[in-house]
Structures are given as C-alpha cells and as structure tokens.
C-alpha cells in the first residue's frame, strides 16, 4: 500500500507574517465573541469582577478597545492601567485631554512618557507569545471603580472622565 501525502507548503517572508497575523486576528476575534456571548448568556460569567460594558459610553468603549490594541501591538498578553492611560491620552477629541490641558499639564511630555513606559517596563513582562489577552487585576479594579464613580455622580453611563477619576483614585 503506497501512501500519498500532500506536500506541505511553506510560506516565507511577508506572506508568512501576513498569514500569521490573519490567523491571530481571527483567534482574538473568536475569543472576544465568546466573551460577549458568555456575558450575555449569564450574569455569573467568568468575569464577575468586570462591569458590563453596555453602561459605558461609545468614547469609553473606544478607549478600552484602544488599550487592548496597544497591548497587542506591543506583543503583550495583558492590558493594564498604563495601556488605558495611553489610550485616554491619545484619543481624538477627548474630554480627558481638555481637562488635563486646563490643569496646564504638558500633554506632549505626558503622552511621550506613558508610551515610553509602555515600551520599556511592560514589554519585559511578556512571558511568551499568546493568543489570550487578559486584564490585570488593577485594570479590572479601575473599570469597577469607574462604574462606582459614575453612580456616585448620578450619571447613567460611564464616560472617559469616570475612567480618569478611577485611575487617579487607584492605589
């Protein structure tokens, strides 16, 4: 009995890199969709410590999504408060930026320092390439505190300002 096998095709260079990114993107999307499905189906999901994102404004959701993207771009398997701060500082038409500018904060220096910190200290914290991105307990606490800040101010939705307040109150 003679076995025939199909030859394996090896991709090199840019094509290989592109295919890997597509596979990784599809996997991350699947994980994200499973997370959303899990949160919609049960109130006692795996992520009990995380607030539901339907109480977040569009801008706040964009900031959280951008923080996630910053971690992926740097090959990090976690999203922490520094990612969130960088996302808040780089968001276009941000209320947070206007608040900090009113307080006479040098936004260019602050943004550069935060992005440099992301590159330097946290990139050493990557253990191995991973498809799973998780929130650090500190960031989960900030998200929870932002919902409490919105509630204490009698706001129906969590906005970027609440995220900033929660970050400032974090230990």
Describe this structure as you would to a colleague.
The protein is mainly α and 171 residues long. Helices cover 60% and strands 2% of the residues. The protein has seven helices and two strands. α3 runs antiparallel to α5 and α6 crosses α7. The radius of gyration is 20 Å and the shape is globular.
Shape: globular
DSSP strand tally: 2
What is the string of SSEs from the N terminus onward? Answer: HHEHHHEHH
Derived structural class: mainly alpha
Helix content: 55-70%
**CA gyration radius, whole angstroms:** 20 Å
User: Treating each run of at least 4 consecutive H or I residues as one helix, how many helices?
Assistant: 7
Strand content: under 5%
Largest sheet: 2 strands, parallel
> Which sequence of strands runs across the widest sheet?
1-2
Question: Low-confidence parts lasting 5 or more residues at pLDDT below 50?
Answer: 37-51
The overall average pLDDT, rounded, is: 76
Q: What is the distance, rounded to the nearest whole angstrom, between the alpha carbons of the first and last residues?
A: 69 Å
Write the layout of secondary structure elements.
Blueprint: H1 13-41, H2 58-73, E1 78-79, H3 81-90, H4 95-102, H5 107-120, E2 134-135, H6 137-152, H7 160-169
Parallel strand pairs: 1-2
Question: What structural keywords apply?
Answer:
171 residues, mainly alpha, 2 strands
């Amino acid at each position: 009995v003679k076995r025939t096998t199909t030859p394996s095709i090896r991709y090199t260079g840019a094509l290989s890199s592109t295919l890997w990114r597509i596979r990784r993107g599809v996997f991350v999307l699947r994980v994200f969709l499973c997370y959303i499905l899990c949160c919609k189906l049960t109130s006692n999901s795996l992520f009990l410590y995380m607030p539901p994102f339907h109480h977040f404004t569009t801008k706040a959701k964009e900031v959280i999504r951008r923080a996630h993207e910053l971690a992926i771009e740097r090959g990090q398997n976690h999203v922490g408060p520094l990612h969130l701060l960088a996302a808040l500082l780089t968001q276009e038409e941000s209320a947070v930026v206007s608040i900090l500018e009113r307080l006479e904060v040098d936004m260019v220096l602050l943004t550069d320092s935060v992005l440099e910190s992301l590159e330097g200290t946290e990139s050493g914290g990557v253990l191995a390439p991973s498809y799973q991105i998780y929130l650090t307990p500190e960031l989960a606490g900030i998200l929870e505190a932002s919902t409490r800040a919105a509630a204490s101010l009698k706001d129906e939705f969590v906005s970027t300002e609440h995220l900033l307040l929660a970050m400032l109150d974090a230990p």
